[in-house]
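In keeping with the milestone schedule agreed at the kick-off meeting, the structural modelling team has produced records for the first pair of proteins. Each record is given below as a sequence line and a structure-token line. The laboratory manager (R.T.) confirmed that both were archived under the project's standard naming scheme.
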Amino acid sequence: MLLGVIANSVGRVEVVTSAVSLLLDRGAQSVLHCGDVGGRHVLGALASCDGAFVWGDRDRDRMGLMRYAHSIGVRCFGILGEFEFQSKRLLITHGDERKVLRKLLEEQSYDYILCGHELNPEDYSSGKTRVLNPGPLHGSKSPSALLLNPIEGSIEILTL
């Protein structure tokens, strides 16, 4: 069972739709957006795939995003979301608050922390916690998404 991860769409609905379609075609059961959604219109692409998201530092209309997401069946975690997927503990956040990220890594409460914000994909471990960033959908030369198999620990960075 696979999980799709995207970040930093900054309102570019076309690239979100393409990324979600690619992730679903590759077997993702759900797609998580790690913030900087950029507008309510982007959330429609997540409604078709058991999608969820967190707010990023560029998401100004947070209450509007949350209300609209609720109305279309997309989960809004706010600034942090904790959940279990295939018996693994995951946390989703945007990643712009580095002090918070360091504290979460010190706690060692999660198998995976999924984040965005940075302009390049990231994959590193601190103790038992693995931090994954799919890279941005907007703001770099190569928009990318990430496909994660939490049980095996395998990932694939997909370039759009």
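The second protein of the pair:
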Amino acid sequence: MTSRRSRARLTKTRHATAQGTNHASSFASHPYTLAGLVAMGALATSALVNRYLTNKAERENPPAGKILQMDGVRLHYVERGEGEPLVLLHGNGSLIEDFETSGLIDLAARSYRVIVFDRPGFGHSERPRSTIWTAEAQADLLYQALRQIGVQRATVFGHSWGASVAVALALKYEPMVKALVLASGYYYPTVRADVVALSGPAVPVLGDVVRHTISPLLGRLMWPVLMRKIFGPAGVPQKFESFPSEMTMRPSQIRASAAESALMIPGAFAVREGYGDLKMPVVIIAGEDDRLIDINDQSAQLHRHIAHSTFHSVPGTGHMVHQTATKRVMAAIDEAAGATRRSASNQIRPLAA
């Protein structure tokens, strides 16, 4: 009896060993299958990690302002100060905290009613896929939002991609915009190889996979390099250390940023003939050593096309001019708002006897 049982156990053991050997042999003979399974596991793990970090970032950085619901779109904004309305629009990949950390909000709030939006898809504002969020589409949304909070006319400041939205708002809703201040903007189409690479996460399906898995990890690795480039030649100021970089690594914001990269050149094509139609005071400011955008091809050319504009090139400063030359930017805002007031004063000057 014992002998038979021993032989049965031995047979089962040999059979299990053979099966294991066969499975191992099967994977060895199909290395691509094994590699695919490993890759899928790595992607799934990274997606879980990124989801955890996204939730953590949003818990640690809750909305600091108020929420509007515009046509089903959640729009987050911060309002501070009293006086003439001043609207601040941030650049691609950024959020309200960019202006907060720069000190521009506090500086401007001494004289203005400052209104700062998280543009669609950034910060705590939504970006529904049912809309292609061109600069004009964003201008439509912001116009409605400003009307809803009681703003009839405002000076509008836009940085980088936000400058494109500011221009679209001024062209389509001229009575709303008293004056424009455009900083580090991209106004004319050029060949940009980097745009193709940065647009990938906006592609449906494949882009969705990338932005939930690989893009946030690459973003964290590249963050120091990117900061040196956009701030250079100036260093990254200490005040920027409180900027919530993890909010920019969320898959939703990566998609918004990628979509705006894809729209950058077509947007410049679409509006390049309309700059001459701007009638309000326009003040243009840019860092002389901007490493992202050639200011001679962009800001300086825009100044030539808008006869009544003024242009300030700030030496020793790069793309983030509002961070590294905050007082110069504040002076540009005061200049634009002051030009509007002087124009209005001239219009009501009594006739000579």
